[in-house]
Write a structure and sequence with these properties.
Largest sheet: 6 strands, antiparallel
Protein name: 3-hydroxyacyl-[acyl-carrier-protein] dehydratase FabZ
Number of domains: 1
Subcellular location: Cytoplasm
Strand content: 35-45%
Helix content: 10-25%
CATH architecture: Roll
CATH superfamily: Hotdog Thioesterase
Function: Involved in unsaturated fatty acids biosynthesis. Catalyzes the dehydration of short chain beta-hydroxyacyl-ACPs and long chain saturated and unsaturated beta-hydroxyacyl-ACPs.
Shape: globular
Organism: Thioclava sediminum
Pfam families: FabA
Length: about 150
């Protein structure tokens, strides 16, 4: 079994060494409180210049719920990357299912979205997570999701 990489947080540079996402679809700025095989907290600084706000909605910009869930998944992929020590290796993550998804409050420009993810099952190719997105401690979204982690090559 591979030892986890020795990181408890990931800045943008390290995130990009773990997951393949890039602008405009890299939806996390930092990951903190990383505990391999257990979970972490992703940070998304929501800004008005993000491309989805041009159409969602021009007069009242709201972060789409699906992008909140995607940000949870990206945070989870960083946890997996640290847990399996696959930094600088081509790890692709594929959604397999999203369950119990609920949206509780709007996420708008100026918010700092915290993405609390917990590993429910993991260790191999298939991982299951529980995620909660909060703003100032207030629940914005929650979901359970399953993903396949595919190390290319």
């Amino acid at each position: 079994m591979t030892e986890p990489a020795p990181y408890t947080e990931a800045d943008l540079s390290l995130i990009k060494r773990i997951i393949p996402h890039r602008y405009p679809f890299l939806l996390i700025d930092k990951v903190r409180d990383i505990v391999p095989n257990k979970g972490a907290v992703g940070i998304k600084n929501v800004t008005a210049n993000e491309p989805h706000f041009q159409g969602h909605f021009p007069e009242e910009p709201i972060m789409p719920g699906v992008t909140i869930v995607e940000a949870m998944a990206q945070t989870s992929a960083v946890v997996v990357g640290i847990s399996l020590d696959v930094i600088d290796k081509p790890l692709l993550t594929y959604f397999m299912g999203i369950d119990k998804c609920k949206f509780r409050r709007k996420v708008v420009p100026g918010d700092v979205l915290e993405l609390h993810v917990t590993v429910k099952r993991g260790g191999g190719k298939i991982w299951k997570f529980e995620g909660r997105g909060t703003v100032n401690g207030e629940l914005a979204a929650e979901a359970e999701f399953t993903a396949m982690m595919d190390l290319q090559g």
